[in-house]
């Protein structure tokens, strides 16, 4: 019994349940209302390989060779991050692409809408991230708009990162190109889109790149942002691959609190890192994040044969 609270732990509940009669995992789950994967963990019976297992409401876990490699929280990051910090979880890199609101976002340039957070809520996110990072050199990559109409509002979000005690190490730009890889991508009004700024922060203001040299400037074709394959504000896979290799080593844990299309979590898994992804939209989790991570775990080899794709 947990002496401080006198509330039995899940482990104690499971042990009491099987003390007199042996039971199946399902029977224990029915009796205790504890999720089956958690029971398997308590009893030291490994998680199922390669399938997402629900371990709590909206929380899924994926394992590879007995290791938990991906956690997905269908949840509000503002509420979830402090809970993760309380659990003592430690993170090796954070990718922050926040759902900020600026006049351009409010103005309706985007084909689909998603929930946004206020600068104050972003302040809570940063407070929790401060507790979650492994050390003062843990990199936090932050992507933000430089659209002139939103600079004032954007600065209120960026200020929260400084308030949490982080310093800028380096910065660059993500320039969105059309499919011809030459012309700048345009908004629905036909105007060229201003590049976004990509900033690397650490608490110490210092950082040594891990697998490849530093580069925070990218000119890349903008991924589809609508339709079956597209997600609003989806970032290019090449950019994520590069910053994950700069920021982490294999086995390290990436945190993406606003995972959207799941491109960062999927790249992390493909590059043999681990990931905690949080996303409020159930639709994004089910339609984009989970399938992308699974695909990254077991890439289907595709081969071009005379113009057809053979799987
Ligand atoms: C800028 S998009 C991230 C795009 C993502 N980086 C990508 O490349 O696809 C922000 C995401 O945050 C999600 N979101 C909004 N409010 C949230 C919250 N409170 N907690 C977690 N996710 C939230 C939105 O649904 C949206 O998918």
Report on this structure.
- By secondary structure, the chain is of the alpha/beta class.
- The chain has two domains: 1-46; 56-310, Vaccinia Virus protein VP39 (Rossmann fold, 3-Layer(aba) Sandwich), CATH 3.40.50.
- The chain contains ten helices and twelve strands.
- The chain has helices spanning 10-18, 25-32, 36-42, 77-86, 103-107, 119-132, 151-163, 237-247, 263-270, 282-297; strands spanning 53-56, 59-64, 67-74, 93-96, 140-144, 167-177, 196-202, 218-221, 253-256, 274-279, 303-305, 308-310.
- The strands form two sheets. Strands 1-2-3-10-9-4-5-7-6-8 form a ten-stranded mixed sheet, sandwiched between helices. It has a two-stranded antiparallel sheet with strand order 11-12.
- The protein starts with 9 loop residues before the first helix and ends with a strand.
- The chain binds S-adenosylmethionine.
- S-adenosylmethionine binds at residues 76-78, 97, 99, 114-115, 117, 231, 233-235, 258, 260-261, 263, 278-281, 284.
SSE inventory with pairings:
Blueprint: H1 10-18, H2 25-32, H3 36-42, E1 53-56, E2 59-64, E3 67-74, H4 77-86, E4 93-96, H5 103-107, H6 119-132, E5 140-144, H7 151-163, E6 167-177, E7 196-202, E8 218-221, H8 237-247, E9 253-256, H9 263-270, E10 274-279, H10 282-297, E11 303-305, E12 308-310
Parallel strand pairs: 3-10, 4-5, 4-9, 6-8, 9-10
Antiparallel strand pairs: 1-2, 2-3, 5-7, 6-7, 11-12
The structure holds S-adenosylmethionine (SAM).
S-adenosylmethionine binds near residues 78, 114 and 115.
């Amino acid at each position: 019994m947990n002496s401080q609270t006198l509330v039995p732990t899940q482990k104690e509940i499971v042990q009491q349940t099987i003390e007199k009669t042996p039971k199946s995992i399902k029977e224990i789950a029915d009796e205790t209302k504890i999720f089956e994967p958690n029971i398997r963990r308590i009893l030291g019976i490994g998680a199922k390989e390669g399938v997402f297992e629900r371990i709590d409401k909206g929380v899924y876990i994926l394992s590879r060779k007995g290791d938990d490699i991906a956690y997905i929280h269908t949840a509000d990051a503002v509420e979830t991050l402090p809970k993760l910090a309380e659990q003592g979880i430690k993170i090796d890199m954070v990718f922050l692409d926040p759902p900020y609101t600026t006049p351009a976002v409010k103005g309706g340039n985007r084909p689909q809408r998603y929930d946004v957070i206020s600068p104050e809520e972003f302040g809570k996110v940063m407070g929790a991230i401060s507790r979650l990072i492994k050390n003062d050199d843990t990199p936090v990559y932050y992507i933000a708009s430089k659209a002139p109409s939103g600079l004032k509002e954007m600065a209120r979000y960026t200020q929260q990162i400084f308030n949490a005690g982080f310093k800028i190490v380096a910065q660059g730009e993500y320039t969105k190109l059309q499919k011809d890889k030459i012309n700048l991508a345009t908004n629905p009004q036909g105007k060229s889109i201003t590049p976004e700024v990509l900033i690397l922060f650490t608490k110490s203001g210092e950082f040594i790149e891990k697998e490849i040299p530093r580069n925070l400037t990218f000119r890349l074709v903008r991924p589809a942002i609508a339709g079956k394959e597209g997600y609003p504000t989806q970032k290019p896979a090449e950019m994520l691959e590069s910053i994950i290799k700069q920021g982490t080593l294999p086995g390290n844990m990436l945190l993406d609190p606003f995972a959207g299309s799941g491109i960062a979590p999927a790249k992390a898994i493909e590059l043999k890192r681990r990931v905690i992804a949080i996303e409020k939209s159930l639709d994004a989790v089910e339609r984009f994040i989970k399938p992308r991570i699974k695909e990254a775990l077991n890439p289907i080899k595709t081969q071009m044969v005379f113009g057809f794709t053979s799987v």
